Amino acid sequence: MCTISLCMIVRNEEHTLKQCLKSVYKLCDEIIVVDTGSTDDTKKVASSFTPLVYDFQWIDDFSAARNFAFAQATSDYILWLDADDVLLKADQDKLARLKEELLENVDAVTMIYHYAFDEFGNVTTSLRRNRLVKRDKNFRWVGPVHEYLGVNGQIINSDIVVTHTRKHAHSGRNLAIFENREKRGESFSPRDLYYFGNELMDNQHFDKALKIYERFIEEKKGWSEDIISACYRLSEIYMIKEEYDKACTFAMHSFEYDLPRAEICCRLGSIFLKQKNYGQACYWFKLATELDKPIDHLGFLQEACWTWFPHLQLCICYYHVGEFEKSYKHNEQALKYRPTDEHMLYNRKLLQQKKRVEVKI
After folding, report:
1. Which domain of life is it from (predicted)?
2. Cβ contact 151:133 at 8 Å
3. 187: which of 75, 146, 254, 310 lies 20 to 30 Å off by Cα?
């Protein structure tokens, strides 16, 4: 059996840290918590689980803090989590089995990250991340913000899920780090540009986000998944601006990097639906329903686009062209994912009535 060091960086996480540590502490041989400047009881909570609590002076660099935490580890493997992450019971059991069965030649293990949820508990955003890595490989974190763990060698993809519990809000903290780096004249990597664009967009600085995304794409040096995502986000900004031709152009530009994704198909469907071009909208939404969701995908997945959303939009499109039977069918498909959705339940009643009227005629 291998041994595992849990390494975390925290700051003002007294309300979430206990839940996180309770979900994994029995599975870890040591727990290392690095505090980057808490002013609440975060360190007190951490100390109730482990004596290995360290202070690290915050220097606007997440990788520096994470690498410091990794440097304290002594076990065979290092597991990393954020304070608002948990492992549910089924995933705790899977990690326990993995710990028993993991072969020594494995350098890293990816886990699924359920990052965001809707009001019905459905996962809305998911991705894979390298979560468990062999300590003696000395893998390093890269990038001051939106950092990533650089790994290589023998990597396996597990079905263990890490569940994110925090409700998301854009504080502007990460954007400030990027803007300060920009003021200092620091050079940005392709990844930096992509995430700078994300932070600008999330904080509704749309015009500057456009420039950063377009620069990122034009340089053609980024990871293909990030380029596809940038195309998606550019098309969203141009939709907000009601510049539908440009929105369509950037969505389709993503096809230069991979086959159509459900997210892009839904974006194109939404563009045509906004313009009341129901035939084109139906084509793209229907295509989204026919695609197979990738299993080992490392980029972000917008789960709604692979499940209920295109069906609901097809319901709307077919309703507008008077094809009530098809509209009803797709609303029922959407309801399978959101059975208590008030809007879909209203659609069901309306369409049942429309179908009866259609039959009588």
Report:
1. Bacteria
2. yes
3. 254
Residue where the block lists tokens 């699924």: 112
Residues forming a β-bridge with 55 = 35
Does residue 337 sit in the same domain as residue 194? yes
Start-end of H helices in the chain: 17-24, 42-47, 62-71, 89-101, 173-183, 190-202, 206-219, 224-240, 244-253, 262-274, 278-290, 309-320, 324-335, 342-360
Q: Give CA–CA dist 28/49, Å, rounded.
A: 11
pLDDT digits over 14-54, tens only?
999 999 999 999 999 999 999 999 999 999 999 999 999 99
What backbone phi and psi angles, to 5 degrees, belong to 349?
-65, -45
Kindly report whether the global pTM for this prediction surpasses the value 0.90. Answer: no
327 and 261 share a domain?
A: yes
The verdict on 189 and 130 lying in the same domain is no
CB atoms within 10 A of CB 124: 18
Helices then strands (H, E): number in the chain?
14, 11
Q: Packing angle between helix 342-360 and helix 309-320, nearest 10 degrees?
A: 40
DSSP run (H or E) holding 73: none
Number of domains in the chain: 2
Identity at 57, one-letter amino acid code: Q
Residues 155 and 194 in one domain: no
| Rounded-to-integer distance, Cα 19 and Cα 183, Å | 39
Domain end point (choices 130, 164, 198): 164
Closest alpha carbon to 85 in 7, 131, 17? 17
**330-349 pLDDT, tens digit each:** 999 999 999 999 999 999 99
